[in-house]
Amino acid sequence: MSNKVMTYAGGQEYKFKKNHMSAGRVAKNVVVHVILAILAVIWMFPIFWVVMTSFRKEKGSYTAYFMPKGFTFDNYTKLFTETTQLNFPRMFLNTLVVAIFSCIITTIFILCVGYCMSQLRFRLRKPFMNMAMILGLFPAFMSMVAVYFILKALGLTEGNMLYVALVLIYSAGSGTGFYIVKGFFDTVPKSLTEAAILDGCNRFQVFNKIVLPLSKPIVVYTILTAFLAPWLDFVFVKVIVGANADYWTVSLGMYNMLEKEYIYNWYTRWAAAAVIVSIPIAILFMLMQKNYVDGMTGAVKG
Amino acid sequence: MAETKVKKKKASIFDTPYTLKNAFSKGDAFTRLSCIFMGLGDIARKQVIKGLIYFGLEVAYICFMAFNGLHNLAMLPSLGETEQGKVWDEDQGVFIYTQGDNSVLILLYGVATLLITFLFVCLWIDNMKSAYKAQWLKEHNKHVNSFREDLRSLLNENLYKFLMFFPMLGIIIFTVLPLLFMIPMAFTNYSKIDKHLVLFDWVGLQNFQTVMGMGGKLGSTFWPVLGWTLIWAFFATFLNFFLGMILAMVINRKDTKAKGFWRFIFVLSIAVPQFVSLLIMRTMLNQNGPINNLLIEWGWITKPLPFWTNATWARVMVIVINCWIGIPYSMLQVTGILQNIPSELTEAAKIDGANSVQTFFKITLPYIMFIMGPYIITQFTGNINNFNVIYLLSGGAPTPVGSTAGKTDLLVTWLYKLTIDYQYYNLGAVIGIITFIVLSIVALATYRNTASYKDEEAFN
Question: How close B270 comes to chain A (CA, Å)?
Answer without folding.
Answer: 8
